[in-house]
Amino acid sequence: MFCEHRWDRSLAFGETVFPCPRPGPAPMLLWLLLILAPGRQPAGALPKALLLLKPPWSTAFEGETVTLFCKDHHSLAWEYVSWYHNETPLRKQSGRLQISKSGHYRCKTQRSSLSDPVHVQFLPDWLVLQASHPAFERDKVVLRCRGKEEEDIMERTYYKNEEKIGSSYNSNITVYPAFNDDSTYRCTASGMYILGMSWTETSRPLKIQVQELFPSPVLTASPSWPIEGSPVTLTCETWLPPLTSRTRLQFCFFKEHRALGAGWSNSPELQIPTMWSEGTASYWCQARTVIPRILKTSPRSQIRVHRVPVSDVNLETQPPVGQLIEGEDLVLICSVAAGTGTVTFSWHREGSERSLGRKTQNALSAELRIASVREQDAGRYYCAADNLDGPVLSKRIRITPRVPVSRPVLTIRGPRSQAVEGDVVELRCEAQRGSPPILYRFYHEDVPLGSSSAPSGGEASLNLSLTAEHSGNYSCEANNSLRVQRSKMVSLSITVPVSHPVLTLNPDVAQAMVGDVLELRCEAQRGSPPILYWFYHEDVILGNTSAPFGGGASFNLSLTTEHSGNYSCGADNGLGAQSSETVSLNITGLCKNKVTHITVGVIGCLLSMLGLAATAALVGRFRTQRKSGAIPRNIGSVPGPDPPAQALHSPPSLSRPALMELQPLYSNAHSPRTHQKGEEPAIVYSEVKRADPYDPARQDREEAAEGYENVPCTSLALDH
Can you give the residue ranges of the Ig-like domain (predicted)? Predict the structure, then answer.
């Protein structure tokens, strides 16, 4: 009958298994003592030796042999080994021992103490349950169900406390027995007879006694009675068996409930640089493994410390005396050359009954920080130290903080409210606070102008003769080697009087025509705006023009004959008027352009009249010859029908010469000086009339050329 196969997730720790009933004879109890880790030993004792088996099983069949080896912390021992069987010494002293008898075996080397006993059993059974050796706390233990005829076994089943923990055909299983595990293990093997019937064999029960992986640590101190203030080395003593070299221990040291140092460390030692007397304070340590996770604690112990009285008390400052700047923090350092235990430090200033501060600590020095020292904090300071034997005072030191310069104020003083070019102004810079000497620097648009020193503090000044280029922003800087401060910007605007203006005429001629438009331009090369310009003719005001942004101004004048004479202009920007030199101008009767236009028009009209008269004479002569028959009608014509009679007979008046009369000439041409861009060109108007009022064709011809002929004057002259 087979057992039901069930698994539990806690199988890895060997805590829960499922029972399965087994028929057969009453079980026999087999005690297997596995050596795991050495038990506790006195501090300083040699570590225990470790007894090893080959093959590594503590249970075997009768008739088989097992080889024993003895190992200490360094290596396997090959000679001078003491062997024991059931506590009886054996003669053999070689490094290994071959056995075939059941019993308890132990060994010992020259560098180790006696090992723990290992019980090796040789059984006459058909099926045995074997456990691997050695194994350690929380370490894995391999269980093997072995039969004398392995080929007949079809299935193996393993039990813990009669609960099934696994089954397989030919595989072992692994368990992780807990510390002081009292569980009982067994296995069954099953197969089939030739006739198809099943059979089952059961091993003897196996009880594994699990011991700790490493002993609980013991805390020791070196020296055991230290002087207060001296270093002490704490050691957390424990060790691992030889075969567990891959396992690493970690250590942590404690004082009461507070961890010392950086916490967990791989070193079993911790050095305390300075040991202080703490009355009844207790120390202890812990040791642990990471995999598997095992934690063990040492017993608590007290360390007696010898106390030394304080001596040679000294007071120092940071920053050093003479280098303290107002506003910085002052650190008073009180120290003792000797003394142990809890020391009480206090700080004092002469003239003050109350102490500045007090600290009690296990140290040979202490600090007191005074934040933001002011000028009124100057005085003589000292400190005291006491470790229950009475206070000891330090020497007195004088502390005087140096004051950095404050932000200076720049003022500009001049002879008038508005600075004018040529004035001499005083630049005055003053810092209200600051330890002397103070160096002042003056700047115009961040360009240095000069410097001045105030050896006893206070203010400094710089005189400046103003020019037009001195307009802009001014500032000053104060420096007393502790701090550099820059003042706010102060703006200074310098007004420049106008220079003598220059009058120019456009066009620039000494003689002009009546009707021309003359531009008078007045300009002062220097002067702060706005500038008001006045224009004069023979010292008579013609008008004024303003230049809000400086520069020049113009005044246009349409010329008449009365405008001949001397012209001048004046400029004024409120700081005094300036006059230009006079410019003379002569005005003639007519405009040059008008004379030119009239001359061209008259000549053109005369040529037109001569041309018309010549044409009329030729036409009259031609008609007279045709009436007399002197000229054939069709000379130079091609044969064809005769022209109409109306075309051949013209009015008599046509044979008379046409008299032409030159009509008055009108012109709207303007002077080129007044002609602006975009205007139409000058126009000359004229009319041509026939002399014979009785000409029958007059009406037709007048309709064709009626009215004035609008021709540009210049073009008409060129056409004629």
Answer: 47-121, 124-207, 292-400, 401-491, 501-588
DSSP state of 376: G
The angle formed by the CA atoms of residues 270, 276 and 280, to the nearest 5 degrees, is 95
For residue range 424-444, list pLDDT tens digits in order.
999 999 999 888 899 999 999
Contacts with 117 (C-beta within 8 Å, 6 or more apart), sequence order: 33, 35, 104, 105, 106
Q: Phi and psi (nearest 5°) for 651?
A: -65, 145
Question: Taking a C-beta distance cutoff of 8 angstroms, is the pair 686, 710 a contact?
Answer: no
Residue with tokens 């072995």: 146
Q: What is the tens place of the pLDDT at every residue in 627-670?
A: 555 444 433 333 343 433 333 333 333 333 333 333 333 333 33
Q: Against a cut of 0.85, is the pTM above it?
A: no
Of 301, 239, 244, the C-alpha closest to 268 is: 239
Under 8 Å between Cβ of 419 and 390: no
DSSP 216-251: PPEEEEESSSPBTTS-EEEEEE----GGGTT--EEE
Is residue 250 a contact partner of residue 329, using CB atoms and an 8 Å limit? no
Helices assigned H by DSSP within 567-591: none
The model's pLDDT over 434-480, given as tens digits with 9 standing for 90+, comes to 888 999 999 999 999 999 999 988 899 999 999 888 989 999 999 99
Q: How many residues would you count in the chain?
A: 720
Hey, what are 607's tokens?
């040529």
Q: What are phi and psi of 563, to 5 degrees?
A: -85, 0
Using CA atoms, how far residue 667 sits from 224, 231, 558, 673, 688, in Å, is 137, 127, 20, 17, 16
CA 177 to centroid of chain Cα atoms = 58
Q: Are 658 and 610 in contact (CB under 8 A)?
A: no
Q: CA-to-CA distance for 50 and 135, rounded, in angstroms?
A: 11
Strand 472-479 versus strand 96-99 pairing type: unpaired
3-state secondary structure of 309: coil
